[in-house]
Amino acid sequence: MKLTTRNALLALTLCLTPFSASAADHEVKMLNYGTEGSMVFEPSFLEVEVGDTVTFIPTNSGHNVRSYVAPEGVAAWNTPLDEKTTVIINQPGVYLYYCPPHLMMSMIGMIQAGEAVNRADLDQKAAKLRSKLVMKGERLDELLAQVK
Question: Which residue numbers belong to the known binding site for Cu cation?
């Protein structure tokens, strides 16, 4: 193959583009009713790899997602109401999130990427969150029990 400017630029672009072939996209539905009851994220617990993405899908209206616990250095997120949003999981640790309009109904979810390096922070903040969960508070315990 003859090295032309076009071929050189293509080769340079391929070398500088990070490969994400192994990265996966996971979908989490925001539901009024799901297999785990009412006002749920489905699935409510995800195990992912660092570099994966999680797409939150407002299957029913009136939902959004706000991060509550994330590993150190991760920017908090608060998605617009009723908008499909993708979050890149770029640090190992545990991510705890909730739907602000339905927090009192325990519409919460969790993502674990690799080792739970922020477990102490997770436990401390989960204890504070518990008082805001008026209904179905056992969901928090069920999620915490799944962290490895």
Answer: 63, 99, 102, 107
